[in-house]
Amino acid sequence: MSAPRLRAGLFLLLLPLSAAAQSDPTVPIEKVVFFKSGVSYVEHRGTVQGTTTMTLRFRDEQMKDVLKSLVLQDLSGGRVGTINYPSQDPLSRTLEGFQVDLSEPGGLGRLSNQLRGAAVTLATGDTTVGGTIVSADPQDGPNGATQWHLTLYGDGGLQSVALDHVQHLRFEDPALQAEMRKALDAVARARNQDENAVRLRFSGQGTRRVRAGYVVEAPVWKTSYRLLLPDANEGQGQMQGWAIVENQTDADWEGVDLTLVSGRPVSFVQDLYTPTYVDRPVVAPTAGEPLPPKQYREGISSDTATAATQGDVDFNASLDRSRRVEAGQSALKAGAAQAESAPQMDPSQGVTATATTAEAGAFFQYTVDDVSLPRRRSAMLPIVTEPLQVERISLYDPDVHPTHPLHGARLTNTTGQHLAAGPMSVFDAGSYAGDARMGDTPPGDTRFVTYALNQNVQVDAGGGRTEETVQTGTIVEGVLTMTRKRVASQTYTIENEGETAASLIIEHPRRSGWTLAAPSDVEERTASVYRLRMTVGAGETGELAVEETKMLTRRHQLLGTDRDQLLSYARTGALPDDVQDALKEAADLQQKVSRTKNQLSQARRDLDRLRSEQSRIRENMKAVEQSSDYYQRLLDKLSSTEDRIESLNERIATLEEERGERSDRLGRYLQDLTID
């Protein structure tokens, strides 16, 4: 294995700081690991002599990740000392410490108000004015504009100068001039993101091996593939896989070991670089009446001592477990045929994979040795060049195209490597055939890919139909449970106008709660579709009938159900005979209850009519003399009505008793009724 070195750091520069301890300590970057979560792990390895202090330089946005992830190791008996770096106070807090506060934007008027009492000299055209700043005040100018006027106190008293006319202002106090320079330097430093020096100290004797690693933000690595289809409908195709990486740094890569990991570890940004302050309440001093001294009893105190120990820092670089092989790198060569006699292009010729694959815990990874890439450049690295099993198919998905399937292939990953998700360009007989997308494919797994519309095959999905029939029923404690079977059917008609047989995969929607009854042979199942295969000969038409079933259970409370509905249930031929007989018996009992209820309702209506007639007779009797014949007739009629009312009351009582008995009999019958 070669001994690659990266002379300039990834996202940083590694420079010697203490020439007295070591004249030129070198710990170059040897390894970079890219993850799918937008970060990379960078590791330095090298040797140092004696006690050495080294400097890593980072930009501001990198400091947050570095302070969260930096790990160091002195492998030969040395010790890792203090790591120090410049404090990064917020600019506003830094500027508050100067006499001149530049934390907020503003013009000369705002700045002049901060400097009241300062001696200045102003130049306005050919005139020079000197004095002490009293104030700067805004005034209304022409057309509503605001003009600032500076009031100075000099030998001639107070003088107002329009700041719009001031061309030059000089502070007479050298200390104030120095403060202004410091404040402006602080603003300039805040814009400089490349001068944050992190100093590492390694203490020890003699020559020692040291390592440093950290995580920083990095572009996500990507993959793309080239699929070369076999000449036959099924056979060995050729798969090329390329990794796309970007060196978005200010340093060249020279012979770095590059590892590409499929996983997406949890990664976040937390600002550990900017000092954090807590706002404390301001308590004003109070003055009150003097208080007499008070003597307190002795209390119990406890002392807490915190001892800090410094030990060696170590970590386990688990990513070193990947296997590595040496292989030369080459580029994919492309060219267009200039004459009919020119041979077809073979994209697989001359391309050799330079990566090895291995599992890294729950992830998988590719490792490429000896990668050199200039700064701010990208590269494509061949990581897979292996044969794999390919079957040509056409795949019909009505959501993609309602009438035509897509040309595609069923890939079986026989490369022995994990194929990461990525786009794919498909080549057929040396010519470009279309683009496809492939998901993550472990070794041995199969995937379907599609790349072009197949206009030789037409599919008519037809219209589906649904039927529902009762299968059986049971009664448990007066509850009728009916099991129904719903059947949905759909027929696909396939017409092949091509010159060769078409192997077609139809994606039929998979619905929750439904079971596929036909066809019995299913190519694949996913969470959303069934993949059903059929073959249609050249110039032929075929049909694929699909049938799905769904069992439905419906429960009906028989108590309270009217007679007609009970008889309707009883006439359902799919129910067992004993269930039908029980429903008929319940219907008869329900009919008796209903008949009694109807008789009772009629008797109550007759009673209401007689009572109304009784009231009318009594009102008429009040209007005639008691000695008249008409009064006597009304009296006889009133007596007859009262007799009838009494008779109806007796009948109503009897009917109510009968209704109760029949309702109880029906309730007891249904409550105890159980037929499984």
Description:
The chain has 676 residues and is of the alpha+beta class. Among the domains are: 460-556, no CATH class; 563-675. 20% of the residues lie in helices and 40% in strands. The protein contains seven helices and 32 strands. The chain has helices at residues 60-69, 91-95, 108-114, 174-191, 563-570, 577-623, 629-671; strands at 13-16, 29-34, 39-49, 52-58, 71-74, 79-84, 119-124, 127-140, 146-154, 157-162, 168-171, 196-203, 207-217, 222-228, 234-247, 253-261, 355-360, 363-373, 377-396, 406-412, 422-428, 431-438, 446-453, 457-460, 465-476, 479-496, 502-509, 515-518, 524-525, 529-536, 541-557, 674-675. Strands 14, 15, 19, 20, 21, 22, 23, 27, 29 and 30 form a ten-stranded mixed beta sheet that branches. Strands 5-13-3-2-16-18-17 form a seven-stranded mixed beta sheet. Strands 24, 25, 26, 28, 31 and 32 form a six-stranded antiparallel beta sheet that branches. Helix 5 (563-570) packs antiparallel against helix 6 (577-623) and helix 6 (577-623) runs antiparallel to helix 7 (629-671). The longest helix has 47 residues, at 577-623. The protein is flat, with a radius of gyration of 48 Å. The protein starts with 12 loop residues before the first strand and ends with a strand. Residues 324-349 are annotated as: Disordered. Keywords: Coiled coil, Signal. It comes from Salinibacter ruber. This is DUF4139 domain-containing protein. Residues 579-665 form a coiled coil.
